[in-house]
Amino acid sequence: MMRLGRWVFIFCLLFIIHVGYAHAEAVSGKPSEKRILDLTQKQKALEKQEERLKALKKDVDEKIEEYTKLLNRIETALNELKAVKEEHMKHLIKTYEAMPEEEAAARLSVLYEPTAVDILLGMNSRKAGAIMGLMEPKKAASITKRMTEAAKKIPIK
Fold first, then answer.
1. Where are the domains of the chain?
2. 128 burial level (CB within 10 Å; 0-12, 13-18, 19+)
3. Cβ contacts of residue 143 below 8 Å, gap of 6+?
4. Looking at the whole model, is its pTM more than 0.70?
5. pLDDT band at 123 (very low <50, low <70, confident <90, very high)
6. d(C-alpha 34, C-alpha 24), whole Å
7. Which residues in 93-118 are b (16+ Cβ under 10 Å) and which e?
8. DSSP 77-101
9. Residue 135 carries which DSSP code?
10. Looking at CB atoms within 10 Å, which of 3, 40, 135, 146 has the fewest?
11. Separation between Cα atoms, residue 74 and residue 135, nearest integer Å
């Protein structure tokens, strides 16, 4: 029983000391040294974290800039490639338009159909009609079907 009394006394004493410090801090308006130390450590940790985040942001911004430049170069290259492809197609169309209609019909009949469609769509309509008129009817019908499908894919504003 005597031991229990000592523990109660020690507990009460510690409680009074703790309440006293808390009361002194509240009354004086000044935080305790331990509180100041804790706040200082937290502030330093936050400053370190902020510096780390700034460095990460800088890295991310640099990567965004790098990838944006790369994307622009790729888009430029694709546009140049598209322009070259269009020039080649124009040249091919002119070549087929310059051929006698019978030869053009024979060659377009055995050509890969999507390419034949592109060539015929780029030609003068009278010339394309004359060439298709010389083709085998099934082949002309198949190409016509592909031409109408191509026309459906063109977006209308």
1. 38-84, 99-152
2. buried
3. 108, 113, 116, 117, 120, 132, 135
4. no
5. very high
6. 14
7. beebbeeebeebbbebbeeebeebbb
8. HHHHHHHHHHHHHHHHHHHHHHS-H
9. S
10. 3
11. 41
